[in-house]
Amino acid sequence: MSSDSFSRVGVAGLVAGAAATAFVGPALSRSAPSPAGAAPAFRGTSQSTASGVSFGTAALGTATLAAVATSARKQRTSRTAKVVRQQAPPSTAVAERKTEDLTGALPDCPGTIWNAEDIDIKKLPPVKQTAPLIIDAAELGDELKKGTEKQWVAAQKDKIMAQLQDHGAIWFRNFETTKQPDGFREFYEALQLNPCLDPIHTSGLRAMEEKKHAVYEAVNKPSLAGHFVGLHNESTFVKTATYGAFVCFKQASEGGGEFLIADGAKILEDMDPAVLERIYTNKVRISVSNLDLNFLGSLPDGMRESASDFFQDLIFKVVAPKFDMDLEMVYGADQSNPYRLQAIEHAQSPINKHPVTGQPVWFCNLHNHSRYLRDRRPCTVPEVGMTDVYSGDLSAIPYDDVRHINEVCEKNIQVMAMKEGDVVLLDNYRVLHGRNTFKGDRKHAVTWFESCGEPLANNQKQKPDDFMNELINKTLV
């Protein structure tokens, strides 16, 4: 998969560009996923109309989630994983957690859990409930008057996490304490969510603005305001956050910047079976950056091949380890330039089964990373950060199929005009997310989580360094 906001809107490309700056010469212009226009090309008209509060009854097994996340790390190099079924735990009180400074203390993002083999496209199970469920503090009335918002959330923890599994995303509206980072942290700790690093933390795509609370900025930079962030999971083939919580600290001052989500199970359900069968059989490969080494063409014949091999190997050894993304460096894959070196993930399935429920879901960042689609909507990513999606054999995915996938994704987009203090909690294996373009100043943020319940053991040692994140955010942005 891929990641950027949360999907990786060319994040690896940004760092690859940084390496190119050091070793090849071209200057790097940082880019990353960013907002999208309120009405970009190919945008569907579907908008979120859900309202009110609907509480489920099943409690989510936090021990099961911890086991799933632990399994994720063990399965990091495996293409399949055993489906773990949940069991409702006995009702227990939520233990108080000591607030501490999380700077430098976050564990790495857990490994992606793959269970993508032998999915019967013709017999997909029905989608009973979809995203988002809305919980509005203004409609809770006396329930909230019995204590603080934190106490209410803590008391409802099992119910909320069960609802999250049923719907894929929950929109918490009109809560007061989540308008500031410390209150937002109280919110996610009341749910016993354990924060972790972004899947592509080392890329520098998102700066961690509130390190003590594990809060990343959600691509609010003015230079990226005109860039549409398409639908994606916060995922690569190697790493995937289990949950994410997006919070609005400040709406865009001049409009736009709406948060977008779409249910991966519904996307799968609505897709043409023939298109789905083709892309599932052929698999996908995602290109995360372009490095145009055109100077190689001017070298003498005897030097050109050896120089090409040298830079291919150099970039791979220097850049790829910083991403842990299962990358291959390939020349000329897009047929536009024989000296364009692309960092491309290996073949992966566009469909995955949810690691807890076993529900097949669209688990693919094509809507965000397809160059064909990016070229037809607001995009401010420089060439080095332009992404693309190919078939597993690196051939082009038929444009008719790309257009159909886009139409289905757009049909399922829920547009969420979050207000100050609003939080969207999402299941990152079930729901894709994105963002509209905006104008003015905007401050949205996100925290990623490895698990729910007791923190995973022995994960503190599995941390990548902050070198590239600090370099890009301090010197190149």
Automatic annotation (TrEMBL):
GO terms for molecular function: oxidoreductase activity. Residues 76-97 are annotated as: Disordered. It holds the Pfam family TauD. InterPro entries: AlphaKG_dependent_hydroxylases, TauD-like_sf, TauD/TfdA-like. Residues 150-445 form the TauD/TfdA-like domain. Keywords: Oxidoreductase. PANTHER family: GAMMA-BUTYROBETAINE HYDROXYLASE-RELATED, TAUD_TFDA-LIKE DOMAIN-CONTAINING PROTEIN. This is Dapdiamide synthesis protein DdaC.
